[in-house]
Design brief:
Length: 1021
């Protein structure tokens, strides 16, 4: 550029610099103006060095962007391009006028080829830039373009609150730009914020600023004084100052005062536990002072589904919530794991503890009477239960399975089920009874043929107590009990009880009926001793008496548990069992059943659970049967038979439940039983001449009759059972569940060693919120019992000949049942539901006693070739227990018939199968807990009597009477002393009725109880 042009530009800049400038204060402005004018004159005279000196002084006295431009222009004239570049960059940064910026940009572009440019940026920006040394002064703040002479330089940056940073050997090249980016490390301290309430929001220095963290937390802040603002919903806000030191930690502790309001919680059941945000706060009805804000309220009561609800509590105001509890009916027997009844793969009814206490049921059988589809039969020896039309006389109830807390109670001789005092002396330890209709062999194997009844005793003790009780039932039974419970810790405890009872029996009038009227039933007339034993006038007096005792208990320690049980009943038999004579009270049965079970059931998170259990079991049976049987030879007759059976067996089971995902659960297990003895023996006391008697032992008849002699050898049949089962439960959605599985059982007693399969499948659909549909199908079996397989021979002597009266049946096959069922439940409200069900059962290979105890027709067991088909339906309307109120009405229809195989005229009606049944049950509180009224009405259609054989010549079947039984019980409890009582009348109308008995009984229909009274008093201290 020519000197003239430069001078002209400088003059123009001078005019712009000082024209119209504000009046600068004091002498600085004048001095700066003087130096500026001198600099301009020197520049015009081409004394660039002198001009630069005065320009720099002027800018130092009064900084001015235009002066900075002149300094850059002067450096350019001196060809000191790096300095010119630096001042042009400053001028461009300070120039607000867009029209003047192009001139500066043009100057930068002009000298850029003569300058080595370094672009310095920092994160964060604003750092002061030093070149090579700090004492040379700063070169501006980042981001900054700097011009240099070519070569290597050190870049130094400083920013308050951050550690200084240096970059060595930055090489600058003429005409090129070198970029230097520096990440600055902040100089900070740590504030650790801790307090009593988690979830507190922390803000720093600004109460309305963004949250910095949620306490408890650590904050990194620059050194110095800061103010923390703390806030949380439901609490008063708080402030706190902290002094933060560099590279150090300071703790800020806070405490927030809660804002509270009143929360009123009501439920339709009293004494339900109220939890607020997981903390127990009281029992319903409750008025609670709780923190304001959204509170999670949970209301729970044993036997009901817990309910959770969110309540918005406003400070200093009252908030009210009303909760309706829905009864939680849980069952274990349906799938061997605790689940809601509506989710169980089967038709289930629960008899809850409230009903057991309100009705004062003396036995399990009494509790079962009136349950939908269930009926009971007392034959003078045992009480049996039938389900959906099947309870055939003489089967000892062996098509039903009874459980005690999941442990099989059926005996090992005839597979007898336990429902009356044979099961327990009283019901005080029972918490609930679970009834599962339909086959259950997929889980339990043999015996779970038509249904399963699981008796669940009370759970882990929560308080130390000692209990005593007395009671009477069935008019002549007197019983007493004592118990104690002791919690040993949060997850451990023990309880046990002992009870005993004695019944004086009752009188029965059988009229002239003595079975076979033949004189062969009477003792020899010339034996007065034998004649005196038998004086029958139509009455059986003081018979049916018994004594019973029960010992039971449980112990828990975390996932380990033990339970023990022993029950023994000694009973006289009034019904002429096994053709015994009527009116003689010396015929008796003694049954003793016991076990000790140990189990371990740990859980491993939500995915895996195991059960390992082992038990030792025992069963002992004794009887004496008074029989007067006269032979053809008048010098020979029998007086009585005695039978006994003893067995001890071990049971072990291992089960695994695996849920890899919430929608899938796999259950697999194996079970083994080892029966060590299974020893049975029968003896018959026989007189070969008057006054000369001996004993013959029932044994398999030898090939050589001479080998049969008197001895005490037992007929032993040790055996074992092995089983494996697997179930899969799939829940693809909340409205659908699929359960399928099978079990395979191997019995060493069966001639066919092929494992017996028991498949089952269930589909559970919830089409809408209040609806629940179950569709189930499966197969079950019952293996022949030891008695049925090996009852043996009775060898009797007539003119030196042995006559077989009983024979073995080793070729028996298992009984089979195929079943299908559909059940739908609609919930009308939280307490009222309506149910309808339909089912079909096909029974085949049923085992019955055959023969007439003669040489030509020995008594034995055989599989029949006539199957039975049962088709039925059920309906129930039920109002669940609420504050002492309950109501239920049910109706059951079951049509059981033999299917034709051959001549239809040979088929008779299925005995002991009521076609119609109905029940009504209800309870009302009269004076709170102190007095309540419970009542039950059961109605049954007549039943056909026993089916002796299927021949046209057989006597025509007759029917029993229809049954209408009304029971009324008053009950209550007093808090003082834990006193509870029952007073009631069963069969108020004294309805007289009979039930069919087995073919081997003298009495074809046995009288059932008329009007009976009960009373009980129990105390817990």
């Amino acid at each position: 550029m020519s000197f003239r042009r430069s001078a002209l530009l400088l003059t123009l800049v001078s005019l712009l610099t000082f024209s119209g400038r504000p009046a600068w204060a004091d002498d600085l402005a004048d001095e700066a103006d003087l130096h500026f004018r001198i600099a301009t004159e020197r520049y015009s005279a081409r004394d660039y060095r002198g001009a630069l000196e005065h320009f720099l002084v002027s800018n130092r006295l009064v900084p001015n962007r235009n002066v900075i431009f002149n300094i850059a222009r002067t450096y350019e004239a001196l060809q000191e391009y790096p300095d010119a570049f630096r001042y042009y960059v400053q001028a461009l940064d300070l120039e607000p006028n867009a029209a003047r910026r192009p001139a500066i940009e043009e100057a930068l572009a002009r000298i850029r080829p003569n300058v080595a440019v370094i672009n310095v940026t920092t994160d964060p920006p604003g750092a002061t830039v030093y070149i090579n040394r700090r004492d040379l002064g700063g070169r501006g703040n980042t981001p900054r373009l700097l011009g240099f002479q070519p070569g290597k330089h050190k870049i130094i940056v400083d920013l308050e609150g951050y550690e200084p940073a240096e970059v060595e050997n930055v090489e600058a090249k003429i005409g090129e730009q070198t970029n230097v980016a520096i990440k600055l490390k902040r100089i900070v301290g740590t504030v650790r914020v801790v307090g009593e309430t988690a979830g507190t929001t922390v803000r720093v220095n600004d109460a309305s600023g963004p949250p910095a963290c949620t306490a408890p937390c650590d904050l990194t802040l620059p050194p110095g004084r800061h103010r923390l603002y703390l806030s949380q919903e439901g609490y008063q806000p708080s402030e706190q100052d902290v002094n933060v030191g560099a590279a150090s930690t300071v703790t800020a502790r806070y405490r927030l005062n809660p804002l509270t309001g009143s929360l009123v919680v009501n439920a339709d059941e009293r004494d339900a536990l109220v939890e607020v945000d997981g903390k127990p706060m009281g029992f319903t009805p409750a008025v609670l002072n709780v923190q304001s804000g959204q509170r999670r309220v949970r209301v729970s009561l044993r036997g009901f589904r817990p309910v959770e609800q969110v309540a918005n509590v406003v400070a200093s105001q009252q908030t009210r919530i009303d909760i309706s509890l829905r009864q939680l009916e849980e069952v274990e027997a349906a799938s061997r794991s605790t689940e809601a009844v509506e989710d169980a793969p089967g038709s289930v009814t629960i008899i809850p503890g409230q009903e057991l206490r309100a009705m004062g049921y003396p036995t399990i059988a009494e509790a079962l009477r009136g349950v939908r589809g269930v009926f009971t039969t007392y034959d003078g020896v045992y009480t049996f239960a039938g389900v959906r039309g099947i309870n055939l006389p003489g089967d000892f109830g062996n098509r039903m399975l009874t459980l005690l807390n999941g442990h099989s109670m059926n005996d090992s001789w005839v597979n007898l089920s336990y429902f009356d005092y044979l099961a327990r002396t009283d019901m005080e330890d029972v918490e609930r009874i679970e009834i599962v209709r339909g086959p259950g062999s997929v889980l339990y194997g043999t015996g779970a043929f038509s249904g399963v009844v699981n008796v669940v005793t009370k759970g882990r003790p929560t308080a130390t107590s000692v209990g005593f009780g007395v009671g009477t039932a069935d008019n002549s039974l007197i019983r007493g009990r004592a118990s104690f419970q002791l919690p040993l810790g949060r997850d451990s405890g023990v309880w046990t009880s002992v009870a005993a009872g004695r019944s004086l029996g009752r009188d029965y009038y059988f009229g002239d009926y003595v079975g076979d009227p033949s004189s062969s039933q009477l003792p020899p007339e010339n034996d007065p001793d034998a004649q005196n034993l038998y004086k029958f006038d139509g009455y059986s007096r003081n018979n049916d008496r018994f004594t019973v005792g029960t010992l039971q208990g449980r112990l828990w320690y975390k996932s380990f548990s033990a339970q023990w049980y022993l029950n023994s009943r000694d009973k006289t038999i009034p019904n002429g069992v096994a053709k015994t004579q009527l009116g003689v009270d010396d015929t008796f049965y003694r049954d003793t059943r016991g076990f000790l079970e140990l189990s371990l059931s740990p859980r491993f998170g939500d995915k895996l659970a195991t059960l390992t259990r082992a038990s030792i079991n025992m069963y002992s049976f004794r009887d004496r049967l008074w029989i007067y049987a006269k032979s053809i030879n008048p010098t020979w007759y029998s007086l009585y038979d005695q039978e006994k059976y003893d067995d001890i067996w071990l049971l072990a089971e291992q089960r695994v439940e695996f849920s890899p995902i919430p929608q899938l659960k796999i259950t697999a297990g194996a079970e083994a039983q080892v029966h060590f003895t299974a020893a049975q023996k029968g003896e018959e006391t026989t007189c070969f001449s008057i006054g000369t008697c001996g004993t013959l032992v029932y044994l398999p008849l030898p090939d050589n009759p001479d080998e049969l002699k008197e001895h005490d050898k037992l007929d032993e049949h040790p055996n074992h059972i092995l089983a494996a089962y697997a179930l899969v439960d799939i829940t693809p959605s909340e409205r659908l569940r699929i359960s399928a599985g099978s079990r395979f059982d191997y019995y060493s007693t069966l001639k066919d060693k092929t494992p017996v399969p028991s498949p089952r499948i269930a589909l559970i659909v919830k089409p809408y919120e209040q609806g629940n549909l179950k569709v189930t199908g499966g197969r079950a079996f019952r293996a022949p019992s030891i008695q049925e397989l090996y009852y043996g021979y009775a060898a009797m002597l007539t003119e030196n000949e042995y006559i077989p009266l009983y024979k073995n049946s080793p070729d028996l096959k298992p009984e089979n049942v195929w079943s299908g069922e559909i059940e739908f439940t609609h919930r009308l409200s939280s307490t009222v539901s309506a149910l309808g069900a339909g089912y079909v059962n096909y029974l085949d290979n049923l085992i019955f006693q055959q023969g007439s105890q003669t040489e030509q027709d020995p008594t034995h067991y055989a599989n029949t070739d006539v199957p039975i088909l049962v088709v039925g339906g059920e309906a129930e309307l039920r109002r669940e227990w609420r504050q002492g109120w309950m109501a239920s009405a049910s109706y059951s229809y079951a049509k059981a018939r033999y299917l034709e195989k051959g001549n239809a005229d040979n088929l008779r009606q299925v005995p002991n199968s009521p076609e119609h049944m109905a029940s009504f049950r209800g309870a009302v509180p009269l004076f709170g807990k102190a007095l309540g009224l419970a009542s039950r009405v059961t109605v049954e259609a007549p039943r056909y009597d026993r089916n002796i054989n299927n021949t046209p010549s057989a006597p025509a079947q007759t029917k029993t009477e229809p049954v209408v039984i009304w029971d009324i019980v008053l009950s209550g409890q007093v808090d003082v002393g834990g006193l509870r009582y029952n007073v009631g009348v069963y069969n108020v109308g004294d309805w007289r009725w009979t039930a069919p008995t087995a073919a081997q009984y003298t009495i074809a229909k046995f009288p059932q109880n008329g009007r009976t009274f009960l009373a009980s008093l129990n105390m817990s201290l």
